[in-house]
Amino acid sequence: MASALIAGLHDSQDLNGSTGSVQSVAINGEVVRICSLDNIIRFEIGEDPTATTTSPAIPALGEVFQPITLGHKVAIYGGQANITTVGEDEDE
To answer: Residue 21: which CATH number?
Structure first.
């Protein structure tokens, strides 16, 4: 039987990058889930990121899990996305 890693999701935020690159707030964790809510979206991660047409893509309604440096942000371009921190909620 295969085992699965189960981790909590917290600090969810929706971003609308339909008309240009938008940034999340600083992420309080080391892994982030980025989920497309509509179109193919582009993303970048960093201290002050800007997503562009050449940034990595996430398929429409797809999701990716990415490592992130504590305090960095996620930028989205091309559609709407949900950004969620993965792991233990430090506030609980």
So the answer is: 2.60.120
pLDDT tens digits, one per residue of 33-85: 999 999 999 999 999 999 999 999 999 999 999 999 999 999 999 999 999 99
Q: Give a yes or no: residue 4 inside a domain.
A: no
Report field, pTM of the whole predicted structure over 0.85: yes
Please check whether residue 92 lies inside any domain of the structure.
no
CA distances from 21 to 17, 18, 61, 80 (A): 5, 8, 18, 11
DSSP H stretches of helix in the chain: none
48 assigned to some structural domain: yes
Q: What is d(CA 63, CA 66) in angstroms, rounded to the nearest whole number?
A: 10
